[in-house]
Specification:
Layout lengths: L1 H23 L2 E2 L6 E2 L7 E7 L1 E4 L14 E10 L3 E9 L26 E10 L2 E5 L4 E8 L22 E10 L8 E2 L6 E2 L2 E5 L2 H8 L3 H4 L8 H7 L3 E7 L1 E7 L6 E10 L2 E9 L14 E8 L11 E5 L5 E5 L10 E10 L5 H6 L7 E6 L5 E3 L28 H4 L4 E4 L5 E8 L1 H10 L6 E4 L3 E2 L9 E2 L8 E5 L9 E7 L2
Antiparallel strand pairs: 1-2, 3-30, 4-20, 5-6, 5-15, 6-14, 6-18, 7-13, 7-16, 8-15, 9-10, 9-14, 11-12, 16-17, 19-29, 20-26, 21-25, 21-30, 22-23, 22-26, 24-25, 27-28
């Protein structure tokens, strides 16, 4: 009896082991939730195709940051891989109406009439939308005035400039350190009534404050620059915000209600003394009441030679204004017809310094598209795989070159994931699902296009439209060194799971 029980247990154990073993042959992918057939080398096989890779040449970047987009402000001075970055924000802060006056029409804000009234201070406020980089290094903000004779693009009121443009700047108003780590905490002010959170506050100089105080139409009447927008801009033409010390990038939004210049004053109204403020804002709404504000977000990169002349098997990818790599997969052109269950490009981070790789983190997303080397060289979206549930035509034969609704990242991939490399280092990696594109090549012998790998802020295919297509990276946020097609430990390659026909 005991032997029979032991025999039954032994058989059950063997059967369970076989069942588990057979289940483990089910292949999976890091993209999506599909289960792939078991790679048994009888019915289903896999292969790795070599990818040729090289850095692309530096090209001028004409990206435009719209007035309502997040702007980047800061300075990176010690990135060992990608060098330096300098980002400045420029904007016209305007009254909410013309002719403008402080307070209400019946207010007294004149200490010569009542000593309890008068102007107190002027504060530049910036909505805080995040930070990338080293938040420990002191962050020093310098506020200046845009020159009155700025001219050029700055005179195109309401036009956001591309990231290579910066208007000329006049004298410095104030320089102040900002504690990045404290911006997410609530600050209570001395009057115990007001508070702020996620806001950079910089008190402007007394000289600049007196300049704004003196413009009041209650004092100057018809000669006040507050009587019209053109008169106001002839008196003060905007604010330039730069960083002179720091090692990171701060994100702000000019259209956010927390971004403003506050003019604080004590007024008398109906016999009551009250402390309040008036806000000057960046006007981003074409409502006709006040002309739109001119804005600019200038971003300058200075990269070491290693970025464009890397060691063999290394590629340097930086988010817009960034860099890109050219890829080719020659073996795809001669691959015989077969059923493609999965074809995915695998891109691995090469770790450098765990500290600097930590705060100068990789881009959240990478992207690949096709280089069409026809009569007119141009780039276009990859066929089929950006969003398989939506029909689109990269050749623009149907006036829909990009999937309506955007990229299906769950299917296509391209977003940063975590894994451990062969040396035990924690790294990021990216996968791109190009199954349908590869199936088309091997079945119909369509073009095997060169590829472009990069980390865009937005996508532009000018042969179809000059309107940018929104992408999921923030401007200037992220950089990564990845392995190329001939890297021994972090090789970039195309993995194909297939069945023979």
């Amino acid at each position: 009896m005991q032997k029979r029980i032991l025999s039954t247990i032994a058989v059950s154990t063997v059967m369970l082991s076989l069942f588990i073993a057979s289940c483990s042959k089910l292949d999976t992918t890091d993209i999506g939730s599909d289960l792939l057939p078991a790679v048994d080398n009888v019915n289903t096989f896999d292969t790795l195709l070599a990818i040729n890779s090289a850095m692309g040449p530096l090209v001028p970047d004409s990206s435009v940051i719209a007035a309502t987009d997040d702007h980047v402000l800061g300075k990176i001075t010690s990135d060992p891989l990608f060098g330096t970055t300098d980002a400045g924000v420029y904007a016209q802060f305007k009254p909410g109406f013309y002719p403008f006056y402080y307070g209400n029409a019946g207010d007294t804000i004149n200490p010569s009439l009542d000593s309890r009234t008068g102007f107190d201070s002027v504060v530049l406020c910036l909505a805080y939308r995040g930070f990338w980089g080293d938040s420990i290094t002191p962050f020093t903000v310098q506020v200046s005035e845009v020159a009155l004779n700025a001219g050029g693009m700055w005179d195109s009121i309401g036009q956001s400039s591309n990231i290579t443009y910066a208007p000329p700047v006049a004298g410095t108003i104030v320089t102040q350190q900002v504690d990045i780590a404290s911006l997410g905490t609530t600050k209570i002010y001395s009057n115990h009534r007001d508070s702020s959170v996620n806001q950079v506050r910089i008190r402007l100089s007394t000289a600049f404050a007196n300049k704004l105080f003196a413009l009041d139409t209650n004092y100057l009447g018809a000669s006040s620059p507050f009587r019209s927008d053109s008169l106001f801009r002839a008196f003060t033409n905007g604010i330039a915000i730069k960083v002179t010390g720091g090692n990171g990038l701060l994100y702000t939004n000019l259209a956010d209600s927390a971004t403003k210049i506050e003019v604080h004053f004590r007024r008398k109204n109906a016999g009551v003394i009250d402390t309040t403020y008036t806000a000057f804002r960046v006007n981003t709404t074409a409502d006709g009441a006040v002309p739109l504000s001119a804005t600019a977000n200038n971003i300058t990169r200075t990269r070491p030679s290693q970025v464009f002349n890397p060691a063999p098997g290394e590629l340097y990818l930086q988010t817009t204004p960034g860099t890109y790599a050219n890829l080719t997969i020659p073996a795809l052109s001669t691959l015989s017809n077969r059923i493609i269950h999965r074809a995915e490009i695998i891109v691995n981070q090469i770790p450098n310094n765990p500290v600097t790789d930590g705060f100068f983190s990789p881009p959240n997303y990478l992207y690949i598209d096709l280089k069409d080397t026809g009569a007119t060289e141009k780039y276009k979206p990859i066929y089929f795989d950006l969003n398989p549930s939506v029909a689109y035509d990269p050749d623009y034969l149907t006036n829909t070159d990009f999937p309506n609704g955007g990229i299906d990242y769950t299917y296509f991939g391209g977003f940063a994931r975590n894994k451990t490399d062969v040396f035990g280092n924690s790294i990021k990696y990216y996968n791109f699902n190009i199954t349908r594109y590869v199936q088309q090549i091997v079945t119909k012998h369509t073009n095997n296009y060169p590829l472009r790998l990069y980390a865009p802020y937005n996508l532009i295919y000018p042969q179809h439209s000059v309107i940018p297509i929104s992408f999921s990276n923030r401007i200037a946020y992220g950089r990564v060194k990845v392995g190329g097609g001939n890297n021994a430990n972090y090789k970039m390659q195309l993995r194909i799971v297939y069945s023979k026909i």
